[in-house]
Automatic annotation (TrEMBL):
Keywords: Amino-acid biosynthesis, NAD, Oxidoreductase, Serine biosynthesis. This is D-3-phosphoglycerate dehydrogenase. It catalyses: (2R)-3-phosphoglycerate + NAD(+) = 3-phosphooxypyruvate + NADH + H(+); (R)-2-hydroxyglutarate + NAD(+) = 2-oxoglutarate + NADH + H(+). It comes from Paenibacillus planticolens. Pathway: Amino-acid biosynthesis; L-serine biosynthesis; L-serine from 3-phospho-D-glycerate: step 1/3. It is an enzyme of class 1 (oxidoreductase).
């Protein structure tokens, strides 16, 4: 008999399958303190939470029998994932359960800002009969969707029914998938310049923070409208207030804020052109039931040693396989991360070739690290367990090959990322005494350790370029730790890889890119 503790308010209908299971005993105790949980958790095989319970390392250290922690929702910020992984506890979530709820809220917000419904309601119940609220129709308008994952795709389907033209942006949206959805592909700036309405559905990452900011507001159509039911910080709040004052933005609807809850003096709260709600994206009866159903089903699978999905930490790997692969995990993730940062366009295929010592073991755990690295800067919540699932859901083909020999290396991991625009290849190895080394970028031989802040400079192999790069960085107080130059032939194309002590300011990178014979400059963080 398995014992399951439900420590947060979770829909009883959603967890009914746990109550009905003959081999499960469910105990529901909410509002427990950390010490109270510590005192009882040793009895339980599974723990179900929402966002209230903080599942700390102290709790998990006391959980002698705990096999799984289920989060009835998407975010797992309240669970110490590192501690769970160390203890061998699987953490699962329910990423799909709130898709429709958030999609429908997005549409409600879009229609509310188009017709100024909350503003009209406020005046009417206040005793004013004001019929001067002249809105706009959605029909024949252009909707820009930034982020075409589960929620963005559902929004697109509904927008088409409303007679809207839809332009979508997503770094992993292929032309084939866009065509299926009836969506025109566009860049962020193309969408910003053309759209009458824009809704954002990306995760909040360093790349998407202030994805819409002052430069984007400067090229928008006057009178456009913005909706954010995703994450606070994707749209620059202060820049948007300025755009409203300048007449660029006619209205906005926000369910999320950069800091939640917002302070009483937040400019959105007293702006008649901004509609705000308190992070209600998943707040429907159906969504709450769906996430509970999803997580309950997964918990049962894990307790019964059946196949499961939606785990957000590392599943068990046989000890003999783990011992051989573990030294390569960091290398694989770094190769993937660099490729993810230098590849342009939507990824449709990742080809991984293992050579030498790696051909006689199951390399699938290592492949997960590589795929995670490729997508980690674009997809929120990606990890070594769900990486393959997320890649598949975006129609990304993963090809694994093995070779008996690896030229001059006893082991070699070579990864090629293919997009509609280009192919990029990196190869890496483990060298005794030197650790993880990147030994090839595309056709160029190199030898460097992928750590910290890097600059990748494509250039023509001409005298003086290295000196100019060093002088420019030095004059801007950017210290070079290491430098590698790779070329195929004298005087041809070449690359330069620099490790620098701190990230170079954007204006320095821009000045570097203008130097004679320099083709491209990319700042990387590994």
């Amino acid at each position: 008999m398995y014992k399951v503790l439900v420590s947060d308010p979770i829909s009883d209908m959603g967890i009914q399958m746990l109550y009905d299971a003959a081999d499960v005993e469910v105990v529901k105790q909410t509002g427990l303190s950390e010490d109270e949980l510590v005192s009882i958790i040793s009895e339980y095989d599974a723990l179900l939470v929402r966002s209230q319970t903080k599942v700390t390392e102290k709790i998990m250290n006391a959980a002698a029998k705990l096999k799984v922690i289920g989060r009835a929702g998407v975010g797992v910020d309240n669970i110490d994932l590192e501690a769970a992984t160390k203890r061998g506890i699987i953490v699962i979530n329910a990423p799909d359960g709130n898709t429709i709820a958030t999609c429908e809220l997005t549409f409600a917000m879009m229609m509310s800002t188009a017709r100024m419904i909350p503003q009209a309601y406020k005046k009417t119940v206040g005793g004013e009969w004001d019929r001067k609220f002249i809105g706009v129709e959605l029909r024949n308008k252009t909707l820009g969707i930034l982020g075409m994952g589960r929620i963005g795709s559902e929004v697109a389907k509904r927008a088409k029914v409303f007679g809207m033209e839809v332009i979508g942006y997503d770094p992993f949206l292929t032309e084939e998938r866009a065509e299926k959805l009836g969506v025109t592909l566009g860049t962020v700036n193309e969408i910003v310049a053309k759209a009458d309405f824009i809704t954002v559905h990306t995760p909040l990452t360093p790349e998407t923070r202030h994805l819409i900011s002052k430069p984007q507001f400067e090229i928008m159509k006057p009178g456009m409208r913005l909706i954010n039911c995703a994450r606070g910080g994707i749209i620059d709040e202060m820049a948007m207030v300025e755009a409203i004052e300048q007449g660029i933005v006619a209205g906005a609807a926000f369910d999320v804020f950069e800091v939640e809850p917002p302070q009483n003096d937040h400019p959105f709260l007293n702006n008649p052109k901004v509609i705000v709600t308190p992070h209600l994206g998943a707040s429907t009866i159906e969504a709450q039931e769906n996430v509970a159903i999803d997580v309950s089903e997964e918990v049962l699978h894990i307790l019964r040693n059946e196949p499961f999905k939606n785990a957000v930490n590392l599943p068990p790997v046989p000890a003999n396989v783990l011992n051989k692969l573990q030294p390569y995990f960091g290398l694989g993730e770094k190769i993937g991360s660099i490729l993810g940062q230098i590849s342009q366009g939507a990824v449709y295929e990742i080809v991984v070739n293992y050579a030498g010592d790696l051909i006689d073991v199951d390399t699938s755990p290592l492949t997960r690290y590589i795929v995670k690295g490729v997508f980690e800067n674009q997809l929120e919540g990606i990890n070594i367990v769900n990486a393959m699932h997320l890649a598949k859901s975006r129609d990304v083909n993963i090809v694994v090959q093995k070779s008996n020999t690896s030229s001059s290396f006893t082991n070699l991991v070579t990864v090629t990322v293919k997009t509609k625009q280009e192919e990029k290849t990196l190869a890496g190895t483990l060298l005794a005494g030197y650790g993880e080394r990147i030994v090839r970028i595309d056709q160029y031989p190199v030898d460097f350790s992928a750590e910290g802040n890097l600059l990748l400079i494509s250039h023509n192999d001409k005298p003086g370029i290295i000196g100019r790069v060093g002088t420019l960085l030095g004059s801007n107080n950017v210290n070079i730790a290491t430098m590698q130059v790779g070329r195929k032939v004298i005087g041809g194309s070449a690359i330069m890889v620099l490790t620098i002590d701190k990230s170079a300011p954007a204006e320095v990178l821009a000045e570097l890119a203008t130097q004679a014979e320099i083709v491209n400059v990319r700042a990387l963080t590994v």
